[in-house]
Amino acid sequence: MKTWTVLPFLLVAAVPGDISGQSLRGSTSSLDRQNRVAREHDFTYIATPAQLQRFVDQGYLVRVPEGADYELHEISFPYARPEVRLFISRLASQYRRACGERLVVTSLTRPKNRQPRNASPRSVHPTGMALDLRRPDPKCRGWLERVLLQLEGSRVLEVSLERRPPHYHVALFPRQYAAYVERITRASAQQYVAGGGRYRVRPGDSLWRIARRHDTTVTRLRSANNLNGSRIYPGQVLTLPG
After folding, report:
1. Domain of 49?
2. CB–CB of 196/240 below 8 Å?
3. In sequence order, what are the residues at sequence separation of 6 or more whose Cβ sits closer than 8 angstroms to the Cβ of residue 50?
4. Where are the beta strands (DSSP E) in 69-128?
5. Distance from C-alpha of 40 to C-alpha of 214, rounded to nearest angstrom
C-alpha cells in the first residue's frame, strides 16, 4: 500500500490499494464499466438539447455555475448530475490550494447529436455523469493525476487521458461517489448547535427531513439559505435557523 499526503476533504490519508499498476490509458473494459454504471443508475442517454432541458426542468440535471476555484471553458451545456457538481467543487477547492490556480472544466453533459466527431459512440457524456478537465502544466499535473487515480482506485470514477486536445475524461459513478463523500465527511456532518448552526447535507436528505430533525420548518430553512425551491445536494452546507 502507498500512503499519500493529501488534503482530507476529498481523500482519506491512505487509499486502499496500490495505484502503481493503474494507467490513464482508456480501454474497452473501462468503457464497459462506465456504461454498466449508467445502466445501474437507469440513466438516459440524452439525444437532443430539448431533451436535456427537460431533464434540467425535472431536476435530474443541475446547473454547474462558474466557481471561485474553477472555470468552465467554452461549455455549451453547463449541466450535470448533482454528484458531478459536488465532485467539481470539492476537487477544485483542493486543486487551487495545492497548485494556486483554478481547475478548468472543458465539457459536461453533451446530447448525442452534439458530440464531437472523435467521441466514442459509447461515451457517457450524454448521461450527465461525465466531465472533461483540461490537462494542466507539469507543475500541477502530477498532483491532479495522482488524486484522480486514487479516486479511480476507490471505484468511484473512471479516468483516462485523451490526446486531442489533451484533457482528462472523468466518468463519475454518482451513487458510489456520494457514499464515499458520506464516509469521509461523517465526522463533520452534524456541525450545528442548539439555536442555530451549520449542517452538511448527506445523501438521501431532503429539506423536510432536515427541518424535522432540527425542530424547524422548510419555509425557515429556505429563507435562511436563500433557496427558491427544495432542491439540495450532498455536501451542500446549510445554515440552520435559530
Report:
1. 19-178
2. yes
3. none
4. 70-72, 79-80, 103-107
5. 34
Q: What is the mean pLDDT of residues 145-160?
A: 96
Q: What are the grid coordinates assigned to 168, written together?
A: 482528462
User: Is-contact 161 168, C-beta < 8 A?
Assistant: yes
Whether residues 202 and 98 share a domain: the answer is: no
What is the Cα–Cα distance from 45 to 111, expressed in whole angstroms? 8
How far is it between the farthest Cα atoms of the chain? 56
Residue 99: count of CB within 10 angstroms of its CB: 16
Lowest mean pLDDT segment, chosen from 150-154, 155-159, 177-181, 219-223 = 219-223
* Count of domains forming the chain: 2
Q: Is 181 exposed, middle or buried (0-12, 13-18, 19+ CB in 10 A)?
A: buried
In whole angstroms, what is the distance from residue 4 CA to residue 175 CA?
A: 25
95 and 138 fall within a common domain? yes
* 8 and 184 Cβ atoms separated by less than 8 Å: yes
